[in-house]
Amino acid sequence: SVIVPVYNVEKFLPRCLDSLLAQTFSDFELLLIDDGSKDRSGDICDKYALKDNRIRVFHKENGGVASARQLGVDEARGEYSIHADADDWIESNMLYDMMNAISNADILVSDYYINTKHGQTYVSQKDCTTSEELFEEIVKGKVFGSLWHKLIRHNLYENIEFNTDLTFCEDQLLLFKILTSYKCKVINLHKAYYHYVCNDSSITQRTDREYFDNKIKYEDYALQVLSPMCFRHIRDIFVLDRLRSYSVPIQRKIYTNSEFKVILGRLPNAYTKRYGVYFLFV
User: Fold this and answer.
1) Nearest 5°: phi and psi at 81?
2) Can you give the pTM of this predicted structure?
3) Span 130-149, pLDDT tens digits
């Protein structure tokens, strides 16, 4: 099952769908979740569905990307699933190579490309063999936390859901839940197939207050996942990374000093004191 959330992407959607329908591996279904698009995206989905019976289209009221992904997960029928974003595209041999390589593993992680207006970059991922290794390397930034370059045994989604109020890192948080709930066998495929397109309008390129509010909400959920004692060493790494990420909103004066003290107060005191963060407010 290939799950594609769709929202106001009429300019890029045909490229994405054409790349998926050009796959040399043919035994898959394509779930297009139209999340209340206001442009022609929904019509494009329907037209493609008329041309290929592997496509199933779901039109829903706008609820955000997490709710669209969740609907796709709920409706998926495949033994394995992978997500794709509607403004990206993939190489024609991705599914064929992944399905041949995954064997008895639960999760396969491939390398990927980043595409910008300046060119294309190959991004290699750190080798992992277990849930805990993959979890830790994602937090360290050695493996990207997205779902679009990971083929996942679909039954791992059972009893695990997306946080539908998130618009940032909703896929990474879902992956955290899987990795802390199951002992997974993980393998790497060091080939790049997925073209992650960085558009100027992407949410990950924003630096406004709404964006950082969503990052903080994601952090709160992630800290809940990391609360068990067995994950404390990963939580240490996560919190330190989050503290470093606050430099941008501080420089841009997104929050007042008093608001930042509240933000820091959410974190265990040991971390904020250990890494000397309070000097930022002196």
Assistant:
1) -140, 155
2) 0.92
3) 999 999 999 999 999 999 99
